[in-house]
Amino acid sequence: MEQAQDLDKTTVNHEPASQEKRRGRVFDYGELRVLLLSMLADQSSHGYELIHAIKARFAGLYKPSPGVIYPTLTWLYDRGYAVIDLEKGGRKRYSITPEGKAFLAANHAVMEMLQKRIVPPRTGKTSPPELVGAMDHLKRALNLRASVEPENEAVIQQIADAIHSAAQRIETLLSTPAPAAGAMCSIANIATPNAARFVRRLCSHFQHRTPVVSDELSGQFRLSLGEIRLEALPETLRVILTSDSESKLIEMENIIVRHLAETAVRETLDIQWSHAQ
What is the pTM of this model? Predict the structure, then answer.
């Protein structure tokens, strides 16, 4: 199906982007195209309305910038998936087209996966004390660094890298749906300097069998046995398997081990699985 192929090209084989430009994103451009189109299927909207609607879906924890939303809407318009109605004052209202509905239908599994990544609104106004304490700790550490002179560029870069790494991990935690009741998990933290390459190769392989949601450092897809998530961490490839039975988990473990062995080049991977429920 042509529409499904379009999505694969944008979520897996997307155009190169620097680490700095991708930091802070919850959705890759390919994922955002599907999400915006599904929102337009519910009702036509202005760009700023879509920005605030996504912010509301994430209970204020994430708000996409205009520099992300409007180029994505332009892409949908250029592909004929959305039309623009010019209103008084030059404002643009976007609506879905029949071609856009066909695109959504062809990528229904991906759309459902994205919907699961929406963070439900938090009841109450107080933040968990654990998060407040952690933020205070980070502030104290940064204030201590700011008071130290002279500035050391190498140390500053290391601090920035540590914060970015933590932010990426937090994004992963926020965007990963909680396992269903009774679900079991199997996790492997595999030491390798080529974690990002393994993520790309595995996502590229499995996209021919199932919808894959991915970016440069992570990938997620579902098999008949369960769900697989890949994360490229510093010097580590993390594989998270989720299923409703231990036998299915073991079968998925064997599938991942086999594909990693085929993908590894002059590298022997030590893969140890730990189970949790």
Answer: 0.42
Question: What per-residue confidence (pLDDT) applies to 44?
Answer: 93
Q: Specify the pLDDT at position 30.
A: 72
Distance CA 196, CA 232 (A): 5
Compute how many other C-beta atoms are within 10 angstroms of the C-beta atom of residue 138: 12
- pLDDT, residue 131, reads 77
Strands 236-243 and 82-86: unpaired
Q: Which of 14, 27, 17, 84 is nearest to 54 (CA)?
A: 27
Residues of the chain with pLDDT under 70: 1-29, 115-127, 144-151, 168-182, 277
Both tokens of 224, joined, read 């008949």
Query: Which regions of the chain does DSSP assign to beta strands (E)?
Result: 45-46, 82-86, 92-96, 184-191, 212-214, 218-222, 227-233, 236-243, 274-276
Separation in Å, CA 160 to CA 153, 165, 235: 10, 9, 17
Phi, psi of 219 (to 5 degrees): -155, 150
Which structural domains are found in the chain, ordered by start? 2-116 (1.10.10.10), 184-276 (3.30.310.50)
Of 194, 38, 188, the residue nearest 117 (C-alpha): 38
Backbone angles phi, psi at 121, to 5 degrees: -60, 140
Residue in 49, 104, 54 with CA at minimum distance from that of residue 79: 104
